Amino acid sequence: MKSVKRAIKKFKSFSPTKRKLIYAISGIVIIAIVFFSVIFWPEGPPEVAVTTIESGSIQSKIETSGTVTTENSSKYTLPEGTYVKEVKVKVGSMVKKGDLLASFDASSVWSLLSSKKADYQKAASAYNDYKASVKNAKASIPHLESQIKELSVKIAETEREIAQESKQTSENTEAETETETETTTSPSQSGSFFDELNELLTNLVNMGATIKDLNDMFENFNNINNTSYDMSSLMAQSMDTPQNRLISYKLQLISLNTQLTANKTTAKGTLDSVYKSIADKAYDDMKATENEIKALEEGWFAEYDGVVTAVNIAENTAFIPEKRKSSGVDVGTLISMLSQDGDINSLVSAFLNGGNKNIGIEIKNYEGFIATISLDKYNLQEVKVGQKVRVESVNDREYEGEVVYVAAEATEKTSLDIASLAGSLTGGSGTASGAVCKIKIYNPDEAVVVGFDVDLEIITAVVENVPIVPVEAVRYDNKGMFVWKINEKKKTVSKAYVSFGVSEDTKYELISGVELGDLIINNPPLSLEDGDKVSVKKD
């Protein structure tokens, strides 16, 4: 202490100039010491933020948007002429299940139901008659074939008899006188006529002629020979001569063959499905009309919550559709034409496809609202039917949803996404392939509009109670992903390469590389090296 006092006393004894010099030198020395301390003094370990690996849950998801459509609508139909008493809704009206839509005077169309019942009875009767005719035709075939066989034997016997007579006549001709020859001219001419007719009939039999062919033959034969023969008159001719019998047998043979051919055709039942289709359609029309009239008597009520998209009826008027949708084919006329073997394919088709119902009111049901998206080849591997979806409308209302359909193959679509725009700029077609995916929206309301987009979060995977690594702790190099693990005793770090499973925006599911309870660095400095010391920031 005394030495300090002596030094201060000595310093005061210096001249002012000398004291100023000492002050200047001392200041320079202090500045130099501070400068070199900052430059050359060793730095301490860097401070880092850390996190402890703990268990948690992860939801892997795909975020996109989809266009709302509806695959379920209620169509309320009514017959033409129905009297409408009141209409409670208009296009755009929101309805709840059970709301009254409209009321009617059903008595205005009771006569239509009677007509539908009569049509069904006609069609059912015609179908039963046709089935009976098929059964009878099948049963008659063996008898007809037996008759034809017997008749063929008679024809053969008669032809032999005629041939024998012709031979005898030829032998007797040489012994006949000129006078006898003249007296037999008429019978020869008659025989010539029957021979010619017999030849024609033989040709007709051989070609499988029908009754129509036979009648045409008689007409031509009569025109040439100035005669008036027909099938009935020839079959009624006296059976005394072999020629008459042969002609009669051949006429009978043509008739039996024609009948056999017709019965074989009928026995095939080729029109069975047509008659049945007409009967079924007539029955369906009758039941549909019954149901329509029953609904009209009770009034129309909403079957589901939804939005009205069409109203084609007006109060206090009889309903007349803008476009009539009747087939224009009467059941009785159709059945009559069928029995005549006419070509009525177009009429039958018109009847079976006709009678489309007249829509009075249509409601898009919220039960069937669907958001449709297109999945690329990567997302297609992750999205599965049954996955949960969070749906958000334009005003931030949220709804639950579910994946209900994923196409098994991709289809080409025109799109305006980045990939397609890039493709068009580089000479591509501006199209992309995608697999259609449909998401059902549960309990939508007026904020979900058909034709507009909604935002979607598809939950593709959920894992519980797994080790979690935050995204900000992960770094990459040419070997893969890694984290910096801290040795808490030595306060040093080491690089640990890791592998992950399911991920979401801010975290990964840890599979390997570090363990539960390990301390790792968040947002590690780029300058870190294995073995570096660090200082952990205090919370």
Written overview of the protein:
This protein is of the alpha+beta class and 539 residues long. It has five domains: 2-40, no CATH class; 47-58 and 463-536, conserved putative lor/sdh protein from methanococcus maripaludis s2 fold (Beta Barrel); 82-117 and 271-364, no CATH class; 140-170 and 187-267, no CATH class; 365-461, Beta Barrel (Elongation Factor Tu (Ef-tu), domain 3), CATH 2.40.30.170. The protein has twelve helices and 23 strands. Strands 2-11-15-13-12-16 form a six-stranded antiparallel β-barrel. The chain has a four-stranded antiparallel sheet with strand order 3-10-8-5, with no helix packed on it. It is elongated, with a radius of gyration of 52 Å. Residues 177-191 and 414-430 have low confidence and may be disordered.
Q: How are the elements arranged and paired?
A:
Elements lengths: L1 H11 L3 H25 L6 E6 L1 E17 L2 E5 L5 E5 L6 E2 L4 E6 L4 H64 L4 H6 L1 H22 L4 H15 L5 H5 L6 H26 L4 H27 L1 E2 L4 E6 L5 E2 L12 H9 L5 H9 L5 E7 L3 E7 L12 E5 L5 E9 L4 E4 L3 H8 L5 E11 L11 E18 L4 E3 L2 E8 L4 E6 L1 E5 L3 E6 L6 E4 L12 E2 L3
Parallel strand pairs: 1-23
Antiparallel strand pairs: 1-22, 2-11, 2-16, 3-10, 4-6, 4-9, 5-8, 6-7, 8-10, 11-15, 12-13, 12-16, 13-15, 14-15, 16-21, 17-18, 18-19, 20-21
Helix pairs in contact: 3-8, 3-9, 5-6, 5-8
Largest sheet report? 6 strands, antiparallel, barrel
Let me know the number of strands.
Answer: 23
Arithmetic mean of pLDDT: 80
What is the number of independent domains? 5
How would you classify the helix and strand content by structural class?
alpha+beta
Shape: elongated
Report the helical percentage. 40-55%
What gap, in angstroms, lies between the N and C termini?
47 Å
